[in-house]
Amino acid sequence: MYFVKDGVRKLLIFCLILTLFVGLAMNSMAKAQGNPNTGSIWTTNLDCEKVNGNIYTLKGDVYLDGGPSTSSNPGLPDGEYFVKVTEPNDTLLGKSDPTTVNVSNGRFATCVNLFNLTNFSDTTNSGGEYKVWVSKNKEFPNNESKTDNFKVGSSSIASPKPIPNDSSPTPIPCVPDVEGTPCPTSTPAPTPTSEPTNPPAPGPQGPKVCDSKQPPAPLLLSVTRTSATTALLKWAPVIPSTYYVISYGTDPNNLQFGVPNTGNTDNFTVGALNPNLNYYFRLMAVNECMPSDPSAILGTGGGVLGASTSKVLGASTDRLAATHSDFSSLRAIAGLAVFGLVFVAGVQFLHAREEN
Questions:
Q1: From first to last of its 356 residues, what are the pLDDT tens digits of the chain?
Q2: Which of 259, 262, 235, 236 lies closest to 247, judged by CA?
Q3: Largest CB tally within 10 Å, which of 17, 88, 117, 325?
C-alpha cells in the first residue's frame, strides 16, 4: 500500500512539474512570435536622419519612421501597419487606410511623408500639437498601437512663394483742367524713380522659425498633495530656459489641463484639483520659443509612469504596454500552476477516500 501511495505521489509531482514546463514553453513561444509592444516610432525630417524631431515649420515637413528605441532593444514586429493622425485628445484628423506601411527586420522599410500618407487636417490645439498612431489593427486599440506627439507651426503644406515686385512707377501726364488752363511749361515732367510713390501691400510672409537652443528635458523630482485641492511640483531647473510648462490630468495618456507659463522657477503649486481623483503631471522647459522634450510623468499617488527619452515621446506608453504584457504572461503561468495544485489535491482526496 505504501508503494502505491508513494507511486501516486511521484506521479502527481511529475504532473505538477510538467504543467509548469508547459506554461513556460507557451510563454517562450509567445515571445518568439513577437511582442506587439516592442519597438518605437518617431517623427523626422526629409533626410530621415533626425530622431524625434517633434517641432516642424509646415505639415509637409513631417516624416514618420520607426524601429528599435535603442540599439540594444528589439524593433517593431514585422508586417503591415496602418497610420492615423489625431489631435492630442484623439480626435481623428486623417488616416492611411487602406494604404499601409511595411516593417521589415524590425524597422520601417522607408520613412514616409506623414501628410502624403494620411492627408491630415489642421489641429484645433492652440499649441499646434498633433498625435500620430501606428498599429497593425485598423481600429488602433491602445494596447496594440504606438503613438508619438509632434507640433507644426503652420497649417500650410509647402513654403509660401514670395510675390514678385516688378511694378514700376508710371509718370502721370498733365491734363488741362476744366477751365482750359494749360499745363505749366517751366516745370519738367516727373521722371520715373526706382521706388513707387505708393508701394504695394506686402505679400504673405512665411511662418517665423524659432532658432533658440533647445533646453534639455527637466527632471520632475516630486509631486506632493499639499491639500485636498492643491499639489506642489518640484523639479531640477535646466539651462538654458526662460520658463516651464506643466501638463496634467486624471489620465496619464490624456493630460487635458495645463499651466502655460510657470516663470523661471523650480517649483509650482497647481490648484483647483478634485480631492477624490489622482492626477498625473508632466513638465517641459522652454527657452524663449524652443520647448524641451517632456519629463517623466509623475502622479499624486506616487510612481514614475514614463521617463523622458531622446528617441520618442511615446516611449512611456510603450513601456507601460510591455509591462502589462509581461504581467499577463505571469498570470497565465500562475493559473496553470494553480490548476496543477488543484488537480494534485483532488487526486489525493479521492485516493484517501478509497483507502477509507
A1: 444 456 666 666 776 787 677 666 665 554 444 455 688 898 988 878 777 778 888 888 899 999 886 777 788 899 999 999 999 999 999 998 788 899 988 899 888 999 999 999 999 998 889 999 999 999 999 889 999 999 998 655 554 444 444 444 445 455 555 455 555 555 555 555 555 556 556 655 656 678 889 999 999 999 999 999 999 999 999 999 999 999 999 999 988 898 989 999 999 999 989 999 999 999 999 998 899 999 999 988 765 554 333 333 333 334 334 444 445 556 667 777 777 677 777 767 776 766 66
A2: 259
A3: 117
Dist. CA 131–CA 123, nearest whole Å: 10
- Beta-bridged to residue 82, according to DSSP, are 135
Q: Phi first, then psi: what are they for 256, rounded to 5°? A: -85, -5
**Are the C-beta atoms of 257 and 248 separated by less than 8 Å?**
yes
Residue type, 249: G
Which phi and psi angles does 172 have, rounded to 5°?
-90, 120
Separation between Cα atoms, residue 43 and residue 196, nearest integer Å = 46
d(CA 291, CA 308): 13
* Helical segments of the chain, H only: 2-32, 114-118, 315-355
Give the Cα separation of 139 and 146 in Å (integer).
13
Dist CA 263 CA 160 (whole Å): 35
Q: What is the DSSP letter of 313?
A: T
- For 127, the enclosing helix (H) or strand (E) is none
- C-beta separation of 66 from 39 below 8 A: yes
d(CA 315, CA 293): 12
